[in-house]
């Protein structure tokens, strides 16, 4: 571990990050959060806009990979069938999916009153993770106005940590949440950017691996012999029961079939952090390209020259590295949160005051 990296999130791999180090390094992509932080309600909504136009009129190519399907997302069937997005991507808690989907539909109809009448209906796209340990999920606190607020807040200055949909999430028995990263790769003589945003809510502490360092195992061994600051009892045999949503954006010109392949590479970055995609974990990745859009109602669609499959390896690598980086970003940026019934998740830095020394002591 490079000592210069200790006070920052370790840089994964050798590919450079974009100037922002977030998914917004992919031109046109913006993100907004709405955070609910009041007593037992610790949750929120995060919205990712693929471009600044109307996504129903200018659909972007997309595809998803369900790595482990213990989840309650909305909209994946049509994405799989048609290979496009036609609403912004929304993230929230499990019981907030219906409210956010309805908000997406209302927003699309406001912008295009012909939807559901002269035109086809709209496909809302909402992903979820269960934040019920910290958040009173039964309160059904997420409403349509929270989607609207997150959408209105979308910009290129993207926050990470205990914000938006990430407010109540846990990761490796620590505080999880929203994480961001980007990588720039060269393919076929051109540079392309891959950005990732994750909603990290998975893993047990003994599994945690940071840039190849078995930090979780080190902490679990420490906890077995002494009191520790981590916020939940450690049991190597307790099953992994969490989820992660991984959103991957790129400006590389890819078709939906190629984006399906790209989304599958998110699993490589996830695995490097220690996940085994447990039975009760909902692990889903969605990839989209901003290189072109598909006009609604067009008779013919003109595509740019697509990157050949044989040239995809650098983009695959950028995807894996950016997803791993984004998970670490979520852990590094998260703040400790106390929520329902006094449940508490400490941040990585609050849990491990000597984190820098631990990482620096490893080869």
UniProtKB/TrEMBL annotation:
GO MF, one term, reads: aminopeptidase activity
- A Pfam family annotated for this chain is Peptidase_S58
- The residues that cross the membrane are none
CDD domains per UniProt: DmpA
Q: Which domain of life is it from?
A: Bacteria
Keyword terms, alphabetized: Aminopeptidase, Hydrolase, Protease
Gene3D superfamilies per the UniProt record, alphabetical: L-amino peptidase D-ALA esterase/amidase
Q: Which family does it belong to?
A: Belongs to the peptidase S58 family.
* The protein's name: Aminopeptidase
Task: Look up and give the organism this protein is from.
Answer: Paraburkholderia aromaticivorans
């Amino acid at each position: 571990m490079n000592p210069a990296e200790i006070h920052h999130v370790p840089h994964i791999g050798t590919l450079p990050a974009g100037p922002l180090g977030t998914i917004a390094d992919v031109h046109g992509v913006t993100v907004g959060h709405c955070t609910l932080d009041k007593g037992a309600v610790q949750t929120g909504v995060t919205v990712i806009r693929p471009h600044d136009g109307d996504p129903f009129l200018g659909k972007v190519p997309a595809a998803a990979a369900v790595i482990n399907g213990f989840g309650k997302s909305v909209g994946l069937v049509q994405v799989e069938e048609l290979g496009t997005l036609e609403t912004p991507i929304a993230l929230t808690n499990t019981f907030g999916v219906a409210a956010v989907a309805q908000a997406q539909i209302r927003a699309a109809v406001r912008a295009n009153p012909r939807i559901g009448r002269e035109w086809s209906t709209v496909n809302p796209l909402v992903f979820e993770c269960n934040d019920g340990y910290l958040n009173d999920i039964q309160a059904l606190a997420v409403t349509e106005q929270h989607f609207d607020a997150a959408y209105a807040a979308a910009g290129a200055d993207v926050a990470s940590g205990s914000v938006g949909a990430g407010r109540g999430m846990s990761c490796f028995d620590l505080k999880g949440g929203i994480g961001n990263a980007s990588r720039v790769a060269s393919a076929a003589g051109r540079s392309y950017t891959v950005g990732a945003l994750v909603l990290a809510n998975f893993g047990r502490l003994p599994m945690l691996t940071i840039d190849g360092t078995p930090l979780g195992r080190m902490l679990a061994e420490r906890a077995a012999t002494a009191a520790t600051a981590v916020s939940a009892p450690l049991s190597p045999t307790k099953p992994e029961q969490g989820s992660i949503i991984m959103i991957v954006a790129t400006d590389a010109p890819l078709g939906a079939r190629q984006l399906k392949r790209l989304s599958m590479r998110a699993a490589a970055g996830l695995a490097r952090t220690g996940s085994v995609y447990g039975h009760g974990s909902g692990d889903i990745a969605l990839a989209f390209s901003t290189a072109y859009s598909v006009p609604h109602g067009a008779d013919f669609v003109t595509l740019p020259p697509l990157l050949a499959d044989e040239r995809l390896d650098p983009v695959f690598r950028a995807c894996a590295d950016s997803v791993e980086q984004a998970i670490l970003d979520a852990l590094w940026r998260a703040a400790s949160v106390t929520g329902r019934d006094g449940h508490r998740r400490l941040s990585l830095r609050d849990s491990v005051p000597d984190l820098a020394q631990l990482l620096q002591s490893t080869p």
